[in-house]
Design goal:
17% strand, Sufe protein. Chain: A, single chain, 46% helix, 151 residues, 3 strands, globular, alpha+beta
Protein backbone atom coordinates (compact mmCIF):
# COMPACT_ATOMS: atom_id res chain seq x y z
CA UNK A 1 0.00 0.00 0.00
CA UNK A 2 1.43 3.38 -0.95
CA UNK A 3 1.14 6.50 1.19
CA UNK A 4 -1.71 7.98 -0.85
CA UNK A 5 -3.79 4.81 -0.37
CA UNK A 6 -3.01 4.78 3.35
CA UNK A 7 -4.11 8.41 3.66
CA UNK A 8 -7.36 7.65 1.81
CA UNK A 9 -7.99 4.68 4.08
CA UNK A 10 -7.45 6.80 7.21
CA UNK A 11 -9.82 9.52 5.97
CA UNK A 12 -12.52 7.01 5.04
CA UNK A 13 -12.19 5.23 8.39
CA UNK A 14 -12.59 8.48 10.35
CA UNK A 15 -15.49 9.60 8.13
CA UNK A 16 -17.38 6.30 8.46
CA UNK A 17 -16.48 5.71 12.14
CA UNK A 18 -15.97 9.17 13.62
CA UNK A 19 -14.33 9.36 17.01
CA UNK A 20 -15.83 11.52 19.76
CA UNK A 21 -19.06 12.31 17.90
CA UNK A 22 -21.80 13.83 20.06
CA UNK A 23 -21.72 16.30 22.94
CA UNK A 24 -18.95 15.65 25.42
CA UNK A 25 -19.87 15.53 29.07
CA UNK A 26 -19.86 18.85 30.94
CA UNK A 27 -18.70 20.92 27.98
CA UNK A 28 -18.10 24.54 28.94
CA UNK A 29 -16.96 25.97 25.59
CA UNK A 30 -18.34 25.43 22.11
CA UNK A 31 -18.29 26.88 18.61
CA UNK A 32 -20.02 26.22 15.30
CA UNK A 33 -18.74 26.52 11.77
CA UNK A 34 -20.55 26.31 8.45
CA UNK A 35 -19.23 26.06 4.91
CA UNK A 36 -21.75 27.85 2.70
CA UNK A 37 -20.10 26.51 -0.47
CA UNK A 38 -20.92 22.87 0.23
CA UNK A 39 -23.20 22.84 3.29
CA UNK A 40 -20.74 21.19 5.72
CA UNK A 41 -21.50 21.96 9.37
CA UNK A 42 -19.50 21.30 12.52
CA UNK A 43 -20.14 22.06 16.17
CA UNK A 44 -17.16 21.61 18.51
CA UNK A 45 -17.76 20.90 22.20
CA UNK A 46 -14.94 21.47 24.64
CA UNK A 47 -14.63 20.73 28.35
CA UNK A 48 -11.75 22.99 29.28
CA UNK A 49 -10.50 22.19 32.77
CA UNK A 50 -9.23 25.26 34.67
CA UNK A 51 -8.50 26.96 31.37
CA UNK A 52 -5.50 24.71 30.76
CA UNK A 53 -6.37 21.11 29.88
CA UNK A 54 -8.86 19.64 27.45
CA UNK A 55 -10.74 17.15 29.57
CA UNK A 56 -13.41 16.53 26.94
CA UNK A 57 -13.52 17.25 23.23
CA UNK A 58 -16.17 16.16 20.77
CA UNK A 59 -18.15 17.29 17.75
CA UNK A 60 -21.44 17.04 15.96
CA UNK A 61 -21.74 17.71 12.29
CA UNK A 62 -22.62 16.67 8.82
CA UNK A 63 -20.88 17.00 5.53
CA UNK A 64 -18.35 15.42 3.26
CA UNK A 65 -15.89 12.70 4.23
CA UNK A 66 -13.06 15.23 4.55
CA UNK A 67 -14.87 17.51 7.01
CA UNK A 68 -16.08 14.59 9.15
CA UNK A 69 -12.68 12.90 9.11
CA UNK A 70 -10.93 16.15 9.99
CA UNK A 71 -13.20 16.76 13.02
CA UNK A 72 -12.73 13.16 14.12
CA UNK A 73 -8.93 13.35 13.76
CA UNK A 74 -8.85 16.66 15.62
CA UNK A 75 -10.81 15.32 18.61
CA UNK A 76 -8.93 12.03 18.67
CA UNK A 77 -5.54 13.77 18.64
CA UNK A 78 -6.21 16.63 21.05
CA UNK A 79 -8.57 15.21 23.67
CA UNK A 80 -6.77 15.17 27.01
CA UNK A 81 -4.02 17.56 25.93
CA UNK A 82 -3.09 20.94 27.38
CA UNK A 83 -3.90 24.20 25.62
CA UNK A 84 -0.37 25.17 24.60
CA UNK A 85 0.09 21.78 22.89
CA UNK A 86 -3.36 22.04 21.30
CA UNK A 87 -2.65 25.50 19.88
CA UNK A 88 0.75 24.36 18.56
CA UNK A 89 -0.74 21.32 16.78
CA UNK A 90 -3.60 23.42 15.41
CA UNK A 91 -1.22 26.11 14.11
CA UNK A 92 1.01 23.48 12.55
CA UNK A 93 -1.98 21.77 10.94
CA UNK A 94 -3.27 25.01 9.41
CA UNK A 95 0.25 25.87 8.16
CA UNK A 96 0.56 22.37 6.68
CA UNK A 97 -2.59 22.88 4.65
CA UNK A 98 -1.39 26.27 3.37
CA UNK A 99 2.31 25.53 2.77
CA UNK A 100 2.25 21.83 1.84
CA UNK A 101 4.67 20.98 4.64
CA UNK A 102 4.08 17.86 6.71
CA UNK A 103 3.55 17.90 10.48
CA UNK A 104 6.57 16.55 12.34
CA UNK A 105 5.98 17.51 15.98
CA UNK A 106 8.15 15.46 18.32
CA UNK A 107 5.39 15.37 20.92
CA UNK A 108 3.03 13.44 18.61
CA UNK A 109 3.28 9.70 18.06
CA UNK A 110 4.17 8.41 14.61
CA UNK A 111 0.56 7.20 14.17
CA UNK A 112 -0.82 10.61 15.13
CA UNK A 113 1.51 12.33 12.65
CA UNK A 114 0.48 9.95 9.87
CA UNK A 115 -3.20 10.45 10.70
CA UNK A 116 -2.98 14.25 10.67
CA UNK A 117 -0.84 14.21 7.52
CA UNK A 118 -3.53 12.13 5.80
CA UNK A 119 -5.43 15.39 5.34
CA UNK A 120 -2.53 17.02 3.49
CA UNK A 121 -3.90 15.83 0.13
CA UNK A 122 -6.54 18.57 0.18
CA UNK A 123 -3.79 21.01 -0.76
CA UNK A 124 -4.24 19.80 -4.32
CA UNK A 125 -7.94 20.76 -4.23
CA UNK A 126 -8.39 24.38 -3.11
CA UNK A 127 -12.18 24.00 -2.87
CA UNK A 128 -11.69 21.27 -0.22
CA UNK A 129 -9.32 23.21 2.04
CA UNK A 130 -12.18 24.72 4.05
CA UNK A 131 -13.64 21.21 4.51
CA UNK A 132 -10.40 20.11 6.16
CA UNK A 133 -9.77 23.24 8.24
CA UNK A 134 -13.30 24.13 9.39
CA UNK A 135 -13.25 22.03 12.60
CA UNK A 136 -9.78 23.31 13.52
CA UNK A 137 -10.91 26.94 13.20
CA UNK A 138 -14.02 26.10 15.25
CA UNK A 139 -11.80 24.62 17.97
CA UNK A 140 -9.78 27.85 18.17
CA UNK A 141 -13.04 29.80 18.41
CA UNK A 142 -14.31 27.51 21.16
CA UNK A 143 -11.09 27.98 23.15
CA UNK A 144 -11.31 31.76 22.88
CA UNK A 145 -14.98 32.04 23.79
CA UNK A 146 -16.21 32.43 27.31
CA UNK A 147 -17.79 29.51 29.09
CA UNK A 148 -21.27 28.59 27.91
CA UNK A 149 -24.38 27.63 29.78
CA UNK A 150 -25.62 24.16 28.91
CA UNK A 151 -28.69 23.93 26.71
Amino acid sequence: MDLKELYQEIILDHAKNPRNKGKCENYNHDAKAYNALCGDKVHIYLNLEKGKNIKGLSFEGEGCAISLASASILTDTLKGKDLSFTKKVTDDFLKMIKTKNKITLNSLSEDQITTINSLSGVQEFPMRIKCATMAWHALLSAIEKKEVEHE
